[in-house]
Amino acid sequence: LGEPIELPQSADEIRQLTVSFNQMMADLRRSFLLQKEFSANAAHELRTPLAVMRAKLDVFSLSEQVDHGTQEMVDSISQQLERLSVLIEDLLWFSKDLPLEEMTPVPLYPLLCDVAEELSSVADEKTIEIQIEQTDCYVLGQDRLLERVFYNLLENAVKYSPAGKQVRISTQKEQDCVRVQVADQGEGIPEECRSAIFEPFFRVDKSRSRAVGGSGLGLAVCKKILERHHAQITVLPNQPNGSIFEIIFRS
Ligand code: ADP
């Protein structure tokens, strides 16, 4: 408990306080923008050496000097380079300004089918099922950005579910909105973490998340993109297990 706050005594004092408050806010905003630019530049610069390392490692693993022991090491390095690459791409998405392209009506059904198909190759025995009552569901947006959102959500649903479980996507056109849900039967998200998971680098179980990979930025990127679409994302429990990520696009 600090010193008691002294109240301003005169209009002049209030004016001075307002000026210094505005100055502080401007400084804060400037340093925030610099920090964002720094992260975007750093991520961008890291891309090239990483791509070179990956290419050289690929060539090396094909050479005849690679015995079984060396191959294991090469695979492990390759895995870590892959993680680094995901982290850099997500950092770039998170820190760069989103492209200011025109919003156009995006048909959800083909977009969700494409993302689901892309992910089904890495989904092991988990099934991705799309339930869409109205195949003519459209939202106003940028398809490339929306694709990123659904890729992140579906990838998480698959990543945080055990084998043999189902991931369900449903869309519903309502009077003044379109509601999309991505439901899984995985480990679920404790109630006290349900808003924090949209913060950058927040992870429910740090050790487990590290084992399954990922950057900790996926949901922060989703939130950032959806804000641009004036859409809201929340997470609901999917009883008895699992979670439901719900997005509401207002029309
Ligand atoms: P990460 O790269 O760690 O997956 P995200 O930002 O995508 O980063 O997610 C943040 C955290 O939210 C994850 O580490 C995980 O703890 C939790 N999470 C996200 N999606 C799910 C899900 N479908 N089921 C359970 N936990 C989830």
TrEMBL record:
**What EC class is this?**
transferase
Domain Histidine kinase, residue spans: 41-251
Q: Could you tell me where this protein is found in the cell?
A: Membrane
Q: Which UniProt keyword terms apply here?
A: Kinase, Membrane, Phosphoprotein, Transferase, Transmembrane, Transmembrane helix, Two-component regulatory system
Record-listed E.C. numbers: 2.7.13.3
Domain (HAMP): residue spans on this chain: 1-33
Name of protein: histidine kinase
* Organism of this sequence: Butyricicoccus pullicaecorum 1.2
Residue range from the parent sequence: 116 to 366 of 366
